[in-house]
Amino acid sequence: MRNRLLFALAIFGLAAGLVSAYVYGIRKKPLPPAFTPAQNPYAQGIYANGIIESYQSNGANINIFPEVSGTVTQILVNEGDTVSKGTPLLLIDDSVQRATVEQQKAQAEAALAMLRELKAQPRLENFRVSKAQVDYAAANLKTTRDSLDKLRKSEALDPKSVSKDQLDNAENAFKVAQANLGVAQRQYELTKAGAWIYDIQNQQHLYEALSKTYASGAALLAKYTIPAAVDGVVLAIHAAVGSFVAPQGTYGTYTQGYNPLIVMGYPQEPYLEVRCYLDEILIPRMPPPPQMKAQMQIRGTNTRIPLEFERIQPYVSPKIQLSDQKTERVDVRVLPVLFRFKPPKDLKIFPGQLVDVYVETK
Prior knowledge:
- The protein has 5 helices and 17 strands.
- By secondary structure, the chain is α+β, with helices and mostly antiparallel strands.
- The protein has 4 domains: about 100 residues, Elongation Factor Tu (Ef-tu), domain 3, CATH 2.40.30.170; about 70 residues, CATH 2.40.50.100; about 40 residues, no CATH class; about 70 residues, Helix Hairpins, CATH 1.10.287.
- The strands form 4 sheets. A 6-stranded antiparallel beta barrel has the order 1-12-16-14-13-17. A 4-stranded antiparallel β-sheet has the order 2-11-7-4, with no helix packed on it. A 4-stranded antiparallel β-sheet has the order 6-5-3-8, with no helix packed on it.
- Helix 2 runs antiparallel to helix 5 and helix 3 runs antiparallel to helix 4.
């Protein structure tokens, strides 16, 4: 009985093994790819990574950095807005600088008022006072002269009628009156001449220096308003109201590095641009620019777009990972080649998008 049971279990185990081997040996049909992988459309072609940019005759997208530090108080535009050159985009707290400029303006205005006062001299009221002092000194001189003459005539008639002391006092009073008249006349001439030319020149230079200080402060105050550098589109704003910004940019919460405060691009019609990085070992295979043909494939789609050669940036530089342009580099050097294309109306394409680029070679 026991042997029959063992034999039955052995046969069952063998059958289970055969069934399992058959089931696990069946090949499952692979799932179709989410999209068709990029394929070289040319019999002989070279591949390059590409990134979409706004179309411009030189450079890349426009990175705007503030020239001053401060807290963002207001953002006047939204990402994706089309703006004109000079349009205010963002405001930075300028309360301290504004108070400084008002102080500089008041100092310049005070210096100007003093300069006008110097140029307006002599003041009529001062002129009249000085003239009255001359008249008073002349009248006092006449009085002392008459007194001295009377004493001298009395002495001539009777020497004992006038004492020596009286005569000396009268002569001294006459000399003092003469001196006072001379001082009054010189003061009158000084008042009549007006301000000294050197005082005017010194005040003029002081006013000009304070005016330039005020102009410099006002120019710095204008830096707290970030304007659009060109006619174009606001692609990205890397700040929020209340965040701190500095000339090196704004701190990125996710990248943990500094980014431009605002990224702008030129108008996206009718062209966009693709910048592709060609490996240096493929440069000898690159055809002459006038004969260059290329296509790009939008990742995630089967769409292929023909490209028109735009220009070459003739400087081979270390390649950066386009997915993280901040710090990552690889041991490869690349040549930037730029093409332009008209975006299809039925497909959304944005600057910063990565694409696959193929260039035909012969």
